[in-house]
Amino acid sequence: MKPGYGERMKAQATLGELAVLVGGKVEGDGSLPIRGIASLEEAGEGEITFVAEIKHSRRLEKTRASAAIVPANLPSFPKPLIRTLNPYLAYAKVQAFFQQKPFSPRGVDSRAFIGGGVKIGREVSIYPFVHVGKGSEIGDRAVLYPGVYLGESVRVGEGSVLYPNVVVMDCCVVGKRVILHPGTVIGSDGFGFARDGAKFVKIPQVGIVVIEDDVEIGANCAVDRAAMGKTWIKRGVKTDNLIQIGHNVTVGEDTVIVAQVGIAGSTEIGNRVALGGQVGVVGHIKIGDGAMIGAQAGVGQDVAPGQILSGSPAFPHREWLRAQAAFQKLPEMKRILADLEKRMKQIEEAISKKDES
Amino acid sequence: MKPGYGERMKAQATLGELAVLVGGKVEGDGSLPIRGIASLEEAGEGEITFVAEIKHSRRLEKTRASAAIVPANLPSFPKPLIRTLNPYLAYAKVQAFFQQKPFSPRGVDSRAFIGGGVKIGREVSIYPFVHVGKGSEIGDRAVLYPGVYLGESVRVGEGSVLYPNVVVMDCCVVGKRVILHPGTVIGSDGFGFARDGAKFVKIPQVGIVVIEDDVEIGANCAVDRAAMGKTWIKRGVKTDNLIQIGHNVTVGEDTVIVAQVGIAGSTEIGNRVALGGQVGVVGHIKIGDGAMIGAQAGVGQDVAPGQILSGSPAFPHREWLRAQAAFQKLPEMKRILADLEKRMKQIEEAISKKDES
Amino acid sequence: MKPGYGERMKAQATLGELAVLVGGKVEGDGSLPIRGIASLEEAGEGEITFVAEIKHSRRLEKTRASAAIVPANLPSFPKPLIRTLNPYLAYAKVQAFFQQKPFSPRGVDSRAFIGGGVKIGREVSIYPFVHVGKGSEIGDRAVLYPGVYLGESVRVGEGSVLYPNVVVMDCCVVGKRVILHPGTVIGSDGFGFARDGAKFVKIPQVGIVVIEDDVEIGANCAVDRAAMGKTWIKRGVKTDNLIQIGHNVTVGEDTVIVAQVGIAGSTEIGNRVALGGQVGVVGHIKIGDGAMIGAQAGVGQDVAPGQILSGSPAFPHREWLRAQAAFQKLPEMKRILADLEKRMKQIEEAISKKDES
Fold first, then answer.
1. CB C168 within 8 A of CB C145
2. Are C264 and A260 a contacting pair at CB < 8 A?
């Protein structure tokens, strides 16, 4: 048995139907029945496979799959094909098709705690050991796995999935079709203290977190509530695991944040930005739309739209590549420099002697 | 409706009363009633706002607030004012005043698990799905949110708040007025193994964690128990989210630790130290009182009191700034060096020819 | 009272018995009764202590312990001794002996949720508020602490311990004698999206995580399930807290991963590798057996077996040490370079003048 997420629909489709699903073009027998998708190595009889890029097309030769999703411009190949401009996207869509599960909402388990004045939509699944604080609202078809905690006056939109042990603190707003992976905390207090001599006095964090539609946040992340106003994760943002987002940060639409990134307070990240793994971003700056920041970089000042930066502190990626290459030659450079200095002295002495003579 | 943490007291005060609260001086009508505090942009009629630094005082002109907390030396301004040396601290105090909630302990929920021999103080709040292991002690007015796990013989002091899904393992001690944000783990095993050929044998971690009074630890952090003895977080320490503190570490009073910092085993951090975001500190070293370590730095050896370091490995911040500036010029330096080498050779040849001639 | 993990056995042994346990050689009275092990400073009458390395042997002089575990080649010392080639390993074994607890399985608490078709072995401990999804299997003597979530069709092997709030998602496999520290998430979705214009489409993550026997994973970690196939943590791997392992990663046997490391998707880590704290490893590369990567390094390409690397991007550790030393001298190098350039020009002018004259 191949492992998979629980009970699936055992969906089946013809090659032609899958081609329609992904907006591709069939080559060969469109009536061919297909019962699943798998990698080039693992696909077997009755399954379809895919090649994302033309440079991997030679690996097609050995596959035992009955059909393949391929780049539109692949040379002819003796198997039924679906040609498409974006095979990777087609793979995502076909995989999603075969992974469909029967929709069977569990309702509200009697071992969940539901506070006063809570509004719950239709066809929800609220598992045992879930806590929904008073005045919260849960949209239709939302799923709250065991150990989920919603504080008071939290809103969770239609079709959102909160995996086990997710915490959403008071008054925070989670949009529609949002996915929060296990252990993630939304709306913990921002890190704000005022000095009072040597000691620190806590600044009450009275703002909220707003997570818009179609956001996905990884496991064991932390998104702090605003000091005042809101921390704002806009539509379509996707984050990996263990990321930290400080109070009053804004993250723009369709921005991608890789694992272990930290963003300090009040920073504004634009739309379609990409932050590589373990990047750190200081507070109170702006990163423009479409910027890309390389893994482990440290961003200390505003970044213009479309810039590509690396390093800590970060500067333009191409310059950084050259500086890094030179860095590895530093000991040699130091030796040459010392040598030149010595030779320079000898020449100067030689010249000065000649001048004297 | 403006969002805020649950039901508040709807506290109200006169400008004069707030001035007394913050130790400031009223300018204008001290009997003016104030019902809340908000930012310069968001404050309205009946609310007070604040300007933390004199350089932002021009932004006062547009506020619709009825009064303002300002630096003591602000030039005169046509609104009722509270003048103070530390407006940010005054803001913290006034915000806390307005955020006061009615104190309404929930008692011990019947869906919590309370082990044998547990001592519970007065006016506590123990929510559903909390586990309190046998022999533990919970101080007066402590709050344990859903999903909190206390092992055996844990002590939690008066007025401490453990947010949802916080874990405190056996025998650890949490002081008074401590705040542990959601998902944080106190007292997980330290990372200790002895080599036995190619394999590793676990070293039992039999020490504890002691967290003193007035400590605040962020969300999804991990503080390991000691191998023997204690991991020790002293009074007033404040940490951000996702930090890691290894076994037998000591963190001194009023030290501040920003998000995603990692401190390896047996290191001693002094009092009033500041560690920037994503800093790493190796084990078995000492960081002196008042030292400041810049974001993403890697500290590999002892740091004297008051030092300011950056870089990985870390060295004095000012020198690091200069080295970083030069680093970005490295490719140019390399080019100049190669050019000098060539010219040097030409000169040497020219001289040697002349000598021959 | 010294703190320790709950109720212990109050085990006692003679010095000779302990020597047999650790494979060492007694010097002095082998019948001496020993009731515990403690550090050089804290050990007292009736306890044994240990010195891991000969350079610390002078600290033996002050200990009040009744006996000591020492390196085999320690010069003679006037106390009963156990001599051994690996005193640290002997300490681990003796500590484990004294920390033995009476084995008392709790059975399955009535407040746990056990889904349909679950198979549960003998002598397990399943605490309140645990969720075991349908079709899962729990081996003999396994311990599931409060707040543990197992999805559907999860397998947990004999003797494994899942600490509070650990999450293991659908179909993942946890071997025998595995320890998962609190808050750790196994089997969250891998970070996989296909671009569809400006937006991202989720790629279903249909693989699993396999954790082999004798693995220990720290607190608040995240190990993602594979896109297809498996994310694979092999026998004997030990990880610290807050680490991130991406989808389809393989980690080889007896590899050690220090806190806050991140490993991106599809990378293969060999056997007996050591990754220092906060290391980042890009996706789709191989790190050979026995390689060692220094703290905070960024590994961007394949690493040959046995290599020792540091830096971001990482290169051989010895060269990195020299480059780092030079880096700190960069401002001086820059000054010398400018000076040489000036002098070079003067010489060239002097020579050209002479040539003219």
1. no
2. no
Question: Which residue numbers of A are catalytic?
Answer: 247
Q: Using an 8 Å Cβ cutoff, are C278 and B280 in contact? A: yes
For residues C291 and C303, the answer to whether their CB atoms sit within 8 Å is yes
CB atoms within 10 A of CB B240: 29
Handedness of CA B218, B191, B147, B252 (dihedral sign): negative
Catalytic residue among C181, C247, C284, C317: C247
Catalytic residue among B56, B131, B181, B247: B247
Nearest to C200 among A91, A238, A337 (CB): A238
Phi, psi at residue A116, to the nearest 5°? -70, 145
What single-letter amino acid sits at C119? K
Are B146 and C165 a contacting pair, CB within 8 Å?
A: no
Integer CA distances (angstroms), B52 to A51, B1, B247, C40, in order: 58, 26, 39, 52
With an 8 Å Cβ cutoff, are A334 and C337 in contact? no
Helices vs. strands in chain A: H and E counts, helices first: 4, 40
pTM for the whole structure: 0.96
For the record, the structure tokens of C285 come out as: 């590369």
Nearest to C219 by CA among B291, A240, B221: B221
How far is the C-alpha of B1 from the C-alpha of B7, rounded, in Å?
12
User: Cβ separation of A113 and B146 shorter than 8 Å?
Assistant: yes
Q: By three-state DSSP, how is residue C14 classified?
A: strand
Question: What are the CA-CA distances from residue C284 to residues C37, C203, C246, C302 (Å)?
Answer: 46, 18, 11, 9
Chain A residues with CB inside 8 Å of C221's CB? 220
> Cα separation of B246 and B221, whole Å?
11
Which whole-number Å values give the CA distances from B45 to A169, A236, B61, B63, in the listed order? Answer: 29, 37, 15, 10
Residue A4: pLDDT band (50, 70, 90) is: very low
The pLDDT tens digits of the residues spanning B104-131 come to 999 999 999 999 999 999 999 999 999 9
Domain C107-318 carries which CATH code? 2.160.10.10
* Helices (H), ranges, chain C: 15-22, 87-99, 317-328, 330-356
* Amino acid (1-letter code) at residue C245: I
Domain locations in chain C? 13-99, 107-318, 322-357
C-alpha dihedral over B43, B46, B50, B55, to 10 degrees? 70
Give the long-range contacts of residues C155-163, CB within 8 A, separation 24 or more.
C157/C213, C158/C121, C163/B167, C163/B169, C163/B188, C163/C219
Residue B5 to chain A, least CA–CA distance (Å): 6
CB contact (8 A) between residue A329 and residue B334: yes
Give B303's DSSP letter.
Answer: B
Tell me whether the omega of the peptide bond preceding residue B313 falls within 30 degrees of 0, making it cis.
yes
Q: pLDDT tens-digit profile of C117-164?
A: 999 999 999 999 999 999 999 999 999 999 999 999 999 999 999 999
Same fold, A13-99 and A107-318: no
- Which CATH number describes the domain made up of C13-99? 3.40.1390.10
Looking at chain B, which residue has its C-alpha nearest residue C178?
A: B202
> d(Cα B104, Cα C287) in Å, to the nearest integer?
57
State how far the Cα of A240 lies from the Cα of A255, in Å rounded to an integer: 11
Q: How far apart are CA A305 and CA B286, in angstroms?
A: 42
**Which residue of A89, A99, A241 is in closest CB contact with C188?**
A241
Dump pLDDT digits (tens) for A9-46: 567 899 999 999 999 999 999 999 999 999 999 999 99
Taking alpha carbons only, the member of B308, B315, B279 closest to residue B292 is: B308
CB contact under 8 A, C196 and A86: yes
Cβ(B44)–Cβ(A234) under 8 Å?
no
Contacts 24+ apart (CB under 8 A), A45-50: A48/A15, A48/A18, A48/A82, A48/A94, A50/A87, A50/A88, A50/A90, A50/A91, A50/A94
